[in-house]
Amino acid sequence: MLRLSLRTRRSLFPYLLLGPGLLWLIVFYLIPILSQGYVSLQTGNIEQGYTFNWAFHVYSDALSEYGAQFARSFGYAAVATVLCLIISFPLAYYIAFKSRHKNILLLLIVLPFFTNYLVRTIAWQTILADDGWVVHFLQNVGLLSHDGRLLATRTAVIAGITYNFLPFMALPLYVSLEKIDRRLIEAATDLYASRATAFRKVTLPLALPGIFAGSLLTFIPAVGDFINAQFLGTSRQYMIGNVIQSKFLVIADYPTAAALSFVLMFVILAAVLLYARALGTRNLQDAAI
Amino acid sequence: MSTATVESQVRGGRRRFAVGARTWDSIRSKALGLWAALALLYLFIPIFIVILFSFNDNKGRFNLTWESFTFKHWEHPFSVSGLSSAFANTLEIAAISTAIAVALGTFMALALVRYGFRGRSATNLFVFLPLATPEVVLGAALLALFLTINVATGYLTIVIAHVMFNVSYVVVTIRARLEGMDTHIEEAAMDLGANEWTTFRKVTLPMIAPGVAAAALLAFALSIDDFVITNFNAGETITFPLFIYGAARQGIPAEVNVLATMILLVAVIGMIVNLILQRRKASSERPVVLAPAGAPING
Amino acid sequence: MPEPDRSLDLFFEQLVEGRLSRRQVLGRLGAAGLTFSSAGALLSACGGVKGTATNSASKPVTANHPKVAIKQLNFSNWPLYIDKSVLKDFEKKYPGSNVKYTEEINENDDFFGKVRQQLQRGDSLNRDIVVLTDWMAGRWVRSGWVEPIDRRNTPNVTKNLQPSLKHPKFDPNRSYTTPWQSGMTAIGYDPQKTGRKLTSIDDLWDPKFKGKVSLIADPRDSAGLVLISMGKNTATATVDDWLAAIDKIDQENKKGQIRRFTGNDYTTDLAKGNLWVSVAYSGDIFQLKADNPRLEFLIPEQGAIIWTDNMMMPQKPPHPYAAETMMNYVYDPQVAAKIAAYVDYVTPVVGAQQAMEKIDPKLVHNELIFPTQETLAKLQPYPSFSNLSDEQKIVEAMQQVTGA
Q1: pTM
Q2: Do C399 and A131 make contact, defined as CB atoms within 8 angstroms?
Q3: Please, which residues 96-135 of chain B have a Cβ atom closer than 8 Å to chain A?
């Protein structure tokens, strides 16, 4: 066995930890996705084939044509992320601090997602049907006009995204809340007059890594989501994910699909960096380079 | 440690407001519990319908309108050919890919949070990229790779794909755990002569266990429901979502609802067993929180 | 929904409309052959690109697949699209044979996305039979991605194939494709909701049904129907005719008449009463009627669409003779009736109706499975464009309307 000094060992250790996962991502993510960068600069069609010719116009076309879908994607994802945070913060807080059955409650959060998406959506379509009691109730209390509907609206799309990404907010939140030393909160409640202040000055800052992780795990995939708009919305709610999906599969316009994806990835990364700066958590200062 | 102890300590420290605080505490605590219950209920609303329709005596092939109650779909849930093998494939793939992704992701998260090294910032950012990549492009790009290196698509390539898109979720979740966590105990262990591996196993892992569990749950849920990326890289292997999306054209059989309900049943039974074990343990020793808590103040 | 959303809605709408008008201009330009994509196609054609996009359909085709013992057959189909006992019977009839039947085709586009790169590289898919809908089958035939069928091995097909299906434009002599099942695209509706019997395709646009109408996102179905309502024929319509039909859909969509553009997920909404009138497939309505007998499938006087899913051998099939034997086998009227009774779409096999007497007498006179000659005469096929760019133009125009 190779004998290395403790120092060398320590300095090599992070690479050892990082290695296998990073290698996996480089081989099965980075290399394939770079090849799509190549595709995005091609022109042609499925029958004649595609040729590479630095077709940057694909990018400008993509941007100018689909501004609305981009705007919608970011808008819906942002609203859904905030809703996820509002719904799951108290839930995660309860599980972390008040529950004696943490693992069971955690499993309960994820359990609904072990049933297939399509089957769940059909269930939602049953519950929110135009003639269903939910709609009738909302009409009766005046939250919905008498001919209003829930399905095939923007509300339904955002609610769908919120529902489907909830675990991605709740679990990281729980994970970071759970590690907070409770004595800190106790001390804080003793120090500050109100519990609200204690929460704001102690719990919230300590939960920041969880809020950061949760909102990214919710927001990033939600921006690229297409399935909720497709099943719960109308064509007026289609997001950039729907465009990419149909550019790729239906129209078989691979360069545009790839170009749109890169634009999307770029904008998301920029948003992540801004968000990181704003939150100022440690890993984010790193990420901000 | 029980919440009651905490609260009594808190109350002790704030005697001046004792009465008011006590009522407020209990209201706050009840409201929190209610909110948590409502949130969970919200998650389960469609699931009740899914379960209900596993008992629907549908006349045609579509299982969309409620007719009457029957057990017939439960008698032979595996009778729909193709469905049971698809179901088995999905569970296996989810289990395998979750295990690999959690292992890879945990180590990556550790490296990213605990160590300073060249390229760390870039890696931090890189980890977010797969989350931001649209699924169609991800699926097609990976397929192109497999074709170029002449790997026949099938079971193995599905596992590879699932690990790939799950790793980032794992890293981000576990990082939220490690972030700002006390490193003194690990350092102490190392000082006492434990090597990295022993320290990881005996000290770090128990501390981050809740994060690992949460990450595994997310990865499993993602894998079990993935359609787009799987479809590209499945070859002739059929998974549960692939079957269902195809079957939608002819009507999703009620047996799909039965199998979905069975997953829930298994999980719920597991929970109950867990609860009973916990109770037993609790009555024989001191109360134990099931998840090893990170902060060393437990108990 | 309540007021606060309003301004955002307007904002989004304006954005979309701005885009649409620009795209419409582009669409018009496209008709004159000036779009980026056609210019791109030109460029790449100059670059000398690989591809076999010649019209292989028009050349005489010969295939020679000598009889061999049938061992293995790799058959890829859509889920729930066959009575599995047919496969067992086949294996019994041909001892030593083994059918590997894979239900892997979810959607024409999805399946194409999955195998495209292999096709373009000229690789074998290691599948003997795949089942794809007319237009996709046409794309494969045009591109030379299919193996011709040795018709000497399929006498049942020659004998029993429905005459109206013998000469589709994309494969005039059925040299490459054999129909598996057909289906009709017309209008499914709930008379209790609409309050009246519907008679015409134009009933889709009745203002009373605003927000309760769905169209299938595929222009071959919905624009096809609208085209028929404009007095055109899908087989002879020009690109401009199609664009006019799509424009009509666009106008109605902007009025809010159309609730959703769907795949076959309209079935859920139709069953729940969220939709009153849908552009629908015959087999779906047949199944939905089992639970809700009220539902009607209207094949209007103006006409409707008939489409076909076709069996074909992808390039370099490992077991061509076995594939042909299977095609021949399912054209035995007894076998065809068994499949039709399970699938409930329109069978392309003459004689299956009589054979159905023994299998399920109730189905013999079901118009959705065995349309009368009179109905068949009203049906028009999916369009079959001689080149890809015409097809793309229409699909893209429709995508602009649906917003994706």
Answers
A1: 0.85
A2: no
A3: 104-105, 107-108, 110-117, 120-135
